[in-house]
Design a protein that fits this description.
Aminopeptidase, 15 helices, six-stranded mixed beta sheet, binds zinc ion, Alpha-Beta Plaits, alpha+beta, 505 residues, four-stranded antiparallel beta sheet, 2 domains, single chain, 19% strand, globular
């Protein structure tokens, strides 16, 4: 089997048809399921949404793979943990090494619905508008299992080759993958030594090319509580005598973050590798204002910096603080002239990819709890400290394959960017399989708003990404043997004349 023999336009047409006829109806049903991650639905087992999502996906996978001899679809259930879908598909075509599988990752648990959806849209109601499918979990990350299976099915239909593939869909990702380590341990004998780990849960800088993620940030998350009173008191009577818990909280935060620039103190920075600086500058130059326009800025609000390269670097390699929740304050509409007894803030401190999260968590606590102003009761309660991830250098075959796949599917070369969020799975797998190659990509592009209201899946992008994945899996059969891949100088030349995914919706 030779990579250049793959008829890419025909493959893309098949994938477009599979998306339209087979995937979208199932994905719409999945969007309608409120299968929130256990952190947001502690009663997930009793509520049964998770089980319905697992049933929907495995029924679909069984139907799609019914003709594939040796395909195996399992639902693993460790006691007291969310379920995990594990699919194995034997190698096809070529001379794939059966001991060198590809592991493809996605998740089926969702973020909570969040208020703020535009009229006519709703978290658990799938809505098509133009190129977009709105609804919670379509892009983050329900599409992953469908795209992976569609890529493999299309490869087989078009005489392509692929290595032995394992598809792992977990259900605790949005709860920092609390259940995943136990499953990775349990699965270790079946996982073998993956040569390529594909994570379909990341972002894309735009919808015009194949983006791969080279790093992800870690995070320290926890709650800062400042208590000054045993009960609320008249604010006119007490202010000037009782210190404000809110002001003390501000003062403590400024030990961590410069309130003017938003810059985090030096303890939480790392030396940024020169290659990543250059790549951030290149991504910034390629994206320009798109980086800013990817967010729903209100009115004249500006980004924290003008230079897009700096913005890319900020998000990928610098620590940043977000306050994601507040307790101890009544709603504005309910506010009376009362000084509140306490202020509690949920902190999310994003960390550079290579910073030790445990040490960072200890440092956050020490900074916040030292010398409490006015001898107030100050505590920092840690939720979790998660490790970031930094990609190993891409093997020549993979770098060539990504470029080829991007040109064929999108008509434009591939691009790299550092991610701002985290995928605990990658930190886990990166440590366990230091020789593995990584393809970390996804459909979370400008305005797609995973975790917020109006999350959408960009349909042309997901169809192209599916075909690009098929191309990379096809190339992996030769890549993993260690033989030098062909350079395929023809791929770039033909890209312009090739229609990159005919829109069918
Ligand atoms: Zn996700």
């Amino acid at each position: 089997m030779h990579a250049s023999e793959l008829d890419f336009p025909a493959l893309q047409r098949t994938i477009d048809r599979v998306w339209r006829d087979d995937i979208l109806p199932a994905l719409c049903d999945y969007i309608a399921i409120a299968c929130q991650s256990p952190a947001f639905d502690p009663d997930w087992a009793e509520n049964g949404h998770m089980e319905r999502a697992v049933g929907l996906m495995t029924d679909w996978a069984r139907e799609q793979l019914s003709a594939v001899a040796g395909a195996c679809i399992d639902v693993l259930r460790l006691p007291g943990r969310t379920p995990l879908i594990f699919i194995e598909i034997p190698a096809s075509g070529g001379d794939a090494n059966p001991d060198a599988p590809v592991l493809i990752y996605g998740h089926l648990d969702k973020q909570p619905p969040m208020p703020g959806w535009a009229p006519g849209r709703d978290a658990f109601t799938p809505v098509f508008e133009g190129d977009r499918l709105y609804g919670r979990g379509g892009a983050d990350d329900g599409y992953a299992i469908f795209a992976a299976i569609a890529a493999l099915r299309a490869l087989r239909e078009h005489g392509g080759a692929h290595p032995r593939c394992q598809i792992l869909i977990e259900a605790s990702e949005e709860s920092s993958s609390i259940d995943l380590p136990a499953y990775i341990e349990a699965l270790a004998p079946r996982l073998g030594e993956p040569v390529l780990i594909v994570a379909l849960d990341a972002g894309c800088g735009n919808y015009d090319q194949l983006w791969t993620t080279t790093s992800l940030r870690g995070q320290v998350a926890g709650t800062l509580t400042v208590r000054v009173l045993d009960e609320g008191v008249h604010s006119g009577d007490a202010s000037g005598i009782v210190p404000s818990s809110f002001r003390i909280a501000r003062q403590l935060l400024s030990r961590l973050e410069d309130p003017h620039s938003g810059e985090i103190v030096a303890d939480f920075h790392v030396e940024i590798p020169q290659q990543r600086r250059e790549q951030a500058a290149a991504a910034g130059a390629a994206l320009g204002q798109e980086l800013r326009e990817g967010f729903p800025f209100h009115g004249d609000t500006r980004a924290v910096a003008d230079d897009p390269g700096e913005l890319a670097l900020n998000r990928a390699w610098r620590p940043q603080l977000a306050i994601t929740g507040i307790d101890g304050a009544p709603r504005v509409a309910d506010a009376a002239a009362v000084m509140q007894p306490y202020t509690a803030l949920k902190l999310g401190l994003r960390l550079p990819p290579t910073l030790d999260p445990e040490a960072a968590a200890r440092r956050v606590r020490a900074l916040l709890e030292a010398d409490p102003p006015y001898c107030s009761a100050v505590s920092f309660e840690l939720d979790f400290a998660s490790r970031g991830w930094h990609a190993p250098p891409a093997a020549p075959w993979l770098a060539a394959s990504l470029e080829r796949a991007s040109r064929l599917a999108f008509g434009r070369g591939s691009a790299v960017i550092g991610g701002g969020g985290g995928i605990p799975f990658l930190a886990m797998l990166g440590e366990r399989y230091p020789r593995a190659q990584f393809l970390v990509t996804g459909v979370l592009g400008p305005q797609s708003n995973a975790h917020g209201p109006n999350e959408f899946l960009h349909l042309p992008t997901v169809r192209r990404l599916t075909a690009a994945l098929a191309q990379v899996l096809h190339d992996a059969v030769r890549g993993e043997t260690g033989r030098a891949p062909d350079t395929h100088a023809d791929a770039g030349g033909t890209a312009d004349t090739m229609s990159a995914a005919t829109p069918v919706f």
